[in-house]
Task: inverse folding
């Protein structure tokens, strides 16, 4: 069962630059490894990660097989208003997961 | 997609070296390890087109000596005021010797406040990593760093 770890500060002052961290458990199989029998293990990675702040996209990333397993990402955004961060991971084999976190801005 | 075979370059260099010793090929054909960034160059060309890429503004933090290539912490930051008129649009990270030249593309914007992204990457060999940032005025800035990897990623067998 895939699971996400999200770290968003619960409170911030308006205009503060806050750091957001997100980790999704995923094998990130590169598609370049082989079994002992010599067969290629098919690629199974997360290809895209998006973060929306009250519906507006503030960060997006394209992942390639060179991103390590259980992809971790950290980035910054300006705390504008109280509300919600929505995170979305999309990948091979129909992988699609979401998570969210809320923030109170004073 | 290219099948990954770490022995190819070594074999090529060995053959080229042997041939040079035999005198059939002049010694100048034995190129050093920097001779295979063709995929890297074309990946960068796909991104920037004909635009010039200047060195500076971008900072790439990767440990210079990596013990385990399966998970390597990486931080890219770009010097920018991050205002509506002058901000970083995107950051792109490339490598030289993994099976694929791309590592990741990160799209930010003036709402980011700070142009900095961290993640964990895989490195299949000791190699050069290149980070390129596209600014809001359309210009491209880059930096590169050489990393030594003792245990490579991607090459082990499953089961």
Result:
């Amino acid at each position: 069962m895939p699971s996400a770890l999200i770290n968003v500060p619960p409170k911030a002052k308006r205009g503060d630059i806050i750091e957001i961290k997100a980790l999704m458990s995923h094998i990130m199989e590169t598609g370049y490894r082989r079994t002992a029998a010599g067969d290629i293990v098919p690629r199974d990675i997360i290809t895209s990660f998006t973060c929306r702040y009250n519906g507006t996209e503030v960060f997006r990333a394209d992942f390639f097989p060179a991103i390590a397993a259980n992809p971790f990402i950290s980035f910054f955004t300006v705390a504008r208003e109280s509300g919600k961060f929505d995170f979305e991971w999309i990948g091979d084999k129909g992988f699609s997961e979401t998570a969210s976190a809320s923030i109170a801005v004073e | 997609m290219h099948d990954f075979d770490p022995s190819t370059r070594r074999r090529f260099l060995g053959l080229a070296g042997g041939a040079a010793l035999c005198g059939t090929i002049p010694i100048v054909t034995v190129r050093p390890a920097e001779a295979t960034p063709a995929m890297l160059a074309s990946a960068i060309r796909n991104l920037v087109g004909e635009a010039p890429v200047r060195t500076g503004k971008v900072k790439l933090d990767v440990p210079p000596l990596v013990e385990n290539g399966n998970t390597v912490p990486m931080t890219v930051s770009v010097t920018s005021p991050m205002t509506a008129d002058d901000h970083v649009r995107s950051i792109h990270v490339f490598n030289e010797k993994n099976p694929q030249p791309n590592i990741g593309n990160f799209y930010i914007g003036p709402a980011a406040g700070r142009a900095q992204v961290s993640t964990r990457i895989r490195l299949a060999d000791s190699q050069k990593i290149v980070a390129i940032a596209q600014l809001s005025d359309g210009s491209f800035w880059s930096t590169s760093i050489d990393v030594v990897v003792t245990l490579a990623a991607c090459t082990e067998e499953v089961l």
